[in-house]
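Re-run requested by the PI after the first attempt was lost when the workstation crashed. Everything re-entered from the original request form. Ligand of interest: zinc ion.
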Amino acid sequence: MAIISRGFHGRRPAPGRDLPPGQYEVHDFPVLSAGPTPRVTHEDWKFTLRTETGTEHTWDWARLMEMPGESPTVDLHCVTKWSKFGTRWEGVSLDLLMEGVETAAEFALVHSYGGYTTDLPLEDLLDGKAWIAHRYDGEELAPEHGGPARLLVPHLYLWKSAKWVRGIDLLLDDEPGFWEGLGYHSYGDPWREQRYQGD
Amino acid sequence: MDTDGTRDQVYEDGNALGGPLSEIFAVDLTAAVGRCAGCGATGPMARLRVYDRAPGLVARCPDCGRVVLRLVRGPDTAWLDLQGASSLAIPLGPPS
Ligand SMILES: [Zn+2]
């Protein structure tokens, strides 16, 4: 007689996987949104890096697709307490996009179609830690998950991984984004449980 | 959640603000008439589109889509942003 422990299919993460403090695991992919979902076609999509001196570096969809891609598999941690393990993405590393961009900036303010913003230190976008992601789980990134393309910065809470990304301003001084300006933590490290200001 | 990508209307009406705001204000603000700082439209707060599947509540103008009110409830602090409301007319009884 086969007896399968209920715990095997329960909410506990697989062995070897750690949940940051206060998080629980989900197997679906919850959709969070602070507004209507922007519908941006590949033809209309553009991504612009603007330096502190005003110099702009712009990619359209075709140019982004020509760049060498990477396929990161990462864990996601949302500040609303769900975590999702082993999500598979395809995208272009920010390291590649930043090649040839001259800047003394230490901060980044990320802008999205639809008006959302989020800020983080520039170094958290570099050294293989961030991507402009355009495919999820083997398919084109769906609009409700940020398609055509979203920022992916999985080592910080997911609100930093701006959906519908359209550009990044490189700044000498930090400027709070949409949630950072309303109580949320300016950095948002899930492992230090930096949810709110003062955490 | 939706997988066909067609359901875009993930907001509720402004009455969803009632409970969370009653924790902060003694009067029912959903009955207040607000003026959108973006387009100037006026209407009851209950007419706003409230997006609450997010790290906070985001209430948008039904006419121009701009953010009128945002509310974040932390463990021991609430943060309220009314930048997008240029005025609020709040029905009250006679002054006591
Ligand atoms: Zn308006």
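Saved to the shared folder this time. The CA atoms of residues 69 and 82 of chain B lie 5 Å apart.
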